[in-house]
Amino acid sequence: MRRDTPPRPDVLGELPSLRRYARALTRNDEDAEDLVHDALVRAYERRSSYDERRNLRTWLFSILHNVFVDGRRAAASRATRDERAMMGAPAHADPEQEHVRWRGRGSPG
């Protein structure tokens, strides 16, 4: 190793802290592991944006937090979409009524 080469960031050394923070956010060990994994994947994908003058721990924690928030937003959006879909769809429709309903929408038939 050359002396003028900066030391490689110690991502593995940050794993215990990342896991603790992820468990605090998710309140579930399995979800926490998934969150850490997703955060590390995102960090790897965006490794070119890491500035070595910046604190690695802060950068990783920011990514972990953002992945968590993104996941919560996506889940809320899915729930809203599912709720709206359920409100617009009948629980059980007579097949003949389905035919009439589809015809009204401009389907061939």
UniProtKB/TrEMBL annotation:
Region (Disordered): 80-109
One GO MF term attached to the UniProt entry: sigma factor activity
Record bears the keyword Signal: no
Keyword Transcription among UniProt keywords: yes
GO biological process: DNA-templated transcription initiation
Location of the PhyR sigma2 domain: 13-65
Protein name as annotated: RNA polymerase sigma-54 factor RpoN
InterPro entries the record matches: PhyR_sigma2, RNA_pol_sigma-70-like, RNA_pol_sigma-70_dom, RNA_pol_sigma_r2
UniProt keyword annotations, A-Z: Sigma factor, Transcription, Transcription regulation
Originating species: Lutibaculum baratangense AMV1
Pfam families, per the entry: PhyR_sigma2 (PF22029)
